[in-house]
Amino acid sequence: MRRKLRISGILLIFGLVIEALSLCWNSAISFMSFAVFGGMFFAVGILLFLYSLVPSGAYLNNN
Amino acid sequence: MMFPSTVVFFLIGASILLILVVVIRPSITASREGKILAFLALFIVPLVAAGVGASEHMERSEQTQFCLSCHIMEPYGRSLYVDDPSYIPAAHFQNHRVPADKACYTCHTDYAMFGTIQAKLNGLHHVYVYWFGTPMHPIRLYHPYNNRECLHCHAGARSFEDSPTHTAMMSDLKSNKLSCTTSGCHDTFHPVDKLGQVKFWKPTE
After folding, report:
1. How far is the C-alpha of B126 from the C-alpha of B134, rounded, in Å?
2. Which of B41, B47, B159, B201 is the most exposed place for a label (fewest CB within 10 A)?
3. What ipTM goes with this model?
4. Is B7 helix (H, G, I), strand (E, B) or coil?
């Protein structure tokens, strides 16, 4: 779980950095980089975090 | 305009700091407080930061500078500086009949219920075609220009309502039976193919 949290956090940081950089310019390229690359990092990061919350099979068997 | 950007950058900074705490010390999630912190850091705060960032981008996409950031739109931007009042977009832009920083959006959005959303979707389509397709040349509108967009500002304005020409055809104009852009009326727009032959207005700094 901790590994997934770390990866999720790193992906989210990438997404946030892309968002910050994209806001430094006002152009179609910056908007698309935010929407495509930033959005991808956000989506994968958040989904990985949510997935890390799901108990594993071993945990369920022990309980 | 600076205020929303400041909020977004503050949120991004706070979000990165919170995430770093979890990434550097994931063991804190063993406690209940740590789990709450991780939930905030890896879910709530990034979602809010992304949402506010998206909102800021949407707001910026209405700006003239944004529309003209695509190379293909440059001549249309130059046409706003044509020194001839018969050119409708230039006259509106130069005399601030439309906000100069939102000139494209003000005239090229539908003033209907979902006009803003439609304009944003069209914009995404334009970006897609610009990069992955073949943009049409010259650029044409999807539909004939609707009088509704003109009347959004001009209806009720004294100079428009008092004009005998307008009064005589008012019902046809309001019902869109007769276009404002009919040949012989207001039919001169972006002269992108004649930019080498026209004079330009140079705004004083």
Report:
1. 10
2. B159
3. 0.86
4. helix
- Please say whether the beta carbons of A28 and B130 come within 8 A: yes
A24: nearest CA in chain B? B5
Using the Cβ of B46 and the Cβ atoms of chain A, whether some distance falls under 8 Å is answered with yes
Question: Is the pLDDT confidence value at B91 over 60?
Answer: yes
> How far, in Å, are A43, B15, B23, B42 from residue A10 at the CA level?
13, 12, 7, 10
Under 8 Å between Cβ of B123 and B108: no
For B200, list phi and psi in degrees, rounded to 5.
-115, 145
Contacts by B111-116, CB closer than 8 A, 24 or more apart: B111/B148, B111/B149, B111/B152, B112/B148
Cβ–Cβ under 8 Å, residues B54 and B63? no
pTM for the full predicted model = 0.82
Q: Which residues in chain B touch residue A26, judged by CB atoms under 8 angstroms apart?
A: 60, 63, 65-66, 69
pLDDT, one tens digit per residue, over A5-63 is 999 999 999 999 999 999 998 898 899 999 999 999 999 999 999 999 887 666 666 65
Comparing B25-34, B89-98, B128-137, B176-185, the range with the smallest average pLDDT is: B128-137
Least CB-CB distance to A16: which of B12, B23, B127? B12
**Residue A8 and residue B148: Cα distance in Å, rounded?**
49
How far apart are the C-alpha atoms of A34 and B53, rounded to whole Å? 9
Q: pLDDT at position A63, please? A: 59
A7, closest residue in chain B (CA to CA): B23
- Top pLDDT among B112 and B100 is at B100
